[in-house]
């Protein structure tokens, strides 16, 4: 057997790594299958941004089904199973699903940020057809990058610990071919999506903060709603970034210190890889947690009242006065900043049914 595919870890470490991956695979498949089942039952009523959440669930369950069984079997076997062929397959699947996931997250954040932004984007409604087209482009984009190593630009190879395969980061200094591929991949498929996620979700959090500060009434506990929605934004973006940052850091260390690769203990290279795989478990729990937080009728009623017209909670005479004051010279009623942010984040309340799940993504 090729020494590159022999585990550099002890049999005990391999066994517990296999157990860990088995648990991760189980909860990932269970959680994401629940999201997809729920989405299927109410597909016709899904909002456009929720399609991105469904796409994220597809990538997570796809990774769990196509990759984890092979890595689990290899861990219990104390050696990679299948040699070069399965290594190429594993690297290909990993590239497709990881790029699709991070790009979907970036688009989710960008879409939410745009519809809560400045005119003419403020208050715009995303169409399902538009989002469907964007999702198709995301998959084509990920598929294109995953195929490059198969046609000669870059390459896939085994991880240093011998029980997984990915982009051959250590080949960065070997040739211009490898270095240009890795740098292009890093910039276009890692740094730019990460910067987009950070910028958009922190921007949304700031918009929420300013919008709810402008509301002087405490009747509907606006502060609590603000905290919940902002928390979901932070959880969605930070969960993925936290899971993958250690792996990216170790990969880049390997890239720039390929001659010193032997100095890093195999166990150190294993941990970030295992931690990154846990990202497929987070999103379903975040999705259903937000559903639970926003699914209670009193809270939905408060949000609808607030989003549709925060003056609706005032006495009729005061509400009428506020509406009249809001009219411009042309007779158009202008929505407040808080309403625009709410509509942008959770959808137009007038169009959502009581049974519809509200997902931040």
Automatic annotation (TrEMBL):
Its main location: membrane. It is found in: Membrane. GO terms for cellular component: membrane. One of its GO terms (biological process) is phototransduction. GO terms for molecular function: G protein-coupled receptor activity; photoreceptor activity. InterPro entries: GPCR_opsins, GPCR_Rhodpsn, GPCR_Rhodpsn_7TM, Retinal_BS. Keywords: Chromophore, G-protein coupled receptor, Membrane, Photoreceptor protein, Receptor, Retinal protein, Sensory transduction, Transducer, Transmembrane, Transmembrane helix. It is a multi-pass membrane protein. Gene3D superfamilies: Rhodopsin 7-helix transmembrane proteins (1.20.1070.10). Residues 31-287 form the G-protein coupled receptors family 1 profile domain. Pfam families: 7tm_1. The chain crosses the membrane at residues 15-39, 51-76, 88-111, 131-153, 181-208, 229-247, 267-290. This is Opsin-5-like. It comes from Salarias fasciatus.
């Amino acid at each position: 057997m090729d020494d590159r595919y022999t585990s550099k870890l002890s049999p005990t470490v391999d066994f517990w790594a296999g157990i860990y991956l088995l648990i991760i695979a189980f909860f990932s498949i269970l959680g994401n299958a629940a999201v997809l089942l729920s989405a299927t039952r109410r597909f016709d009523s899904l909002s456009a941004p929720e399609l991105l959440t469904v796409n994220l669930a597809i990538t997570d369950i796809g990774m769990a089904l196509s990759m984890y069984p092979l890595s689990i079997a290899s861990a219990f076997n104390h050696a990679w199973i299948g040699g070069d062929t399965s290594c190429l397959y594993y690297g290909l699947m990993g590239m497709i699903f990881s790029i699709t996931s991070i790009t979907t997250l970036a688009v989710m954040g960008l879409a939410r940020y745009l519809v809560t932004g400045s005119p003419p984007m403020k208050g715009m409604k995303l169409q399902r057809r538009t989002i469907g087209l964007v999702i198709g482009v995301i998959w084509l984009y990920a598929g294109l990058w995953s195929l490059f190593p198969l046609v000669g630009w870059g390459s896939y190879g085994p991880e240093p610990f011998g029980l997984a395969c990915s982009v051959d980061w250590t080949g960065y200094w070997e040739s211009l071919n490898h270095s240009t591929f890795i740098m292009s991949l890093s910039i276009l498929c890692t740094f730019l999506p990460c910067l987009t996620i950070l910028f958009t979700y922190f921007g949304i959090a700031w918009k929420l903060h300013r919008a709810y500060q402008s509301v002087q009434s405490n009747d509907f506990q606006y502060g609590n709603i603000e905290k919940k929605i902002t928390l979901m934004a932070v959880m969605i973006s930070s969960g993925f970034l936290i899971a993958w940052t250690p792996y990216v850091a170790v990969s880049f260390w390997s890239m720039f210190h390929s001659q010193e690769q032997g100095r890093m203990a195999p166990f150190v290279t294993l941990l970030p890889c295992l931690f990154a795989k846990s990202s497929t478990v987070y999103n379903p729990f975040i999705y259903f947690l937000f559903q639970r937080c926003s699914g209670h009728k009193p809270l939905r009623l408060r949000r609808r009242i607030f989003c549709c017209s925060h003056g609706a909670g005032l006495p009729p005479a005061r509400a009428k006065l506020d509406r009249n004051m809001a009219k411009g010279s042309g007779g158009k009623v202008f929505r407040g900043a808080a309403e625009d942010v709410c509509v942008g984040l959770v959808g137009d309340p007038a169009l959502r049914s009581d049974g519809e799940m509200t997902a931040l993504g």
